UniProtKB/TrEMBL annotation:
Record flagged with keyword Signal: yes
Native organism: Herbaspirillum robiniae
Cross-referenced Gene3D superfamilies: Heavy-metal resistance protein CzcE
Name of the protein: CzcE family metal-binding protein
Record's keyword terms, sorted: Signal
Pfam families tied to this protein: CzcE (PF16986)
Keyword Nucleotidyltransferase tagged: no
Leader peptide range in chain numbering: 1-23
Length: 110
């Protein structure tokens, strides 16, 4: 009986670890996700001379350039700066810009 209980405990532990890994896989993309263009909190004009953009975690931003646009939700837990080219459509101005993420007071839990 003891041997079977050990197997059951190991199986339960493995099952829970897989469930946790699956839940983490469904958490936000490292850079955020595309968003509905009708819901941006603000709009940022981009050009090839744009060096950086500052956004907050959870913020929805519409990026515009030469009549083109896309909207992005920065629903990420990460705080590391990254290249704008990671989220921008190919050929969109500002590809060399760096995105800096600021903390959102709602994410702090205070």
């Amino acid at each position: 009986m003891k041997f079977n209980f050990s197997k059951a405990a190991i199986a339960a532990t493995l099952l829970m670890s897989f469930a946790g890994a699956n839940a983490m896989a469904q958490v936000a993309d490292p850079f955020g996700t595309p968003a509905n263009s009708a819901m941006p909190e603000r709009e940022i004009a981009m050009s090839n001379s744009t060096k950086y953009v500052n956004v907050a975690q959870g913020e929805v931003v519409k990026f515009v350039s030469h009549g083109k646009s896309f909207t992005w939700k920065f629903d990420t837990f990460g705080m590391q700066p990254f290249s704008f080219s990671k989220i921008a459509p190919q050929g969109f101005d500002g590809a060399n810009a760096t995105v800096y993420l600021g903390t959102n007071p709602l994410y702090r839990g205070h």
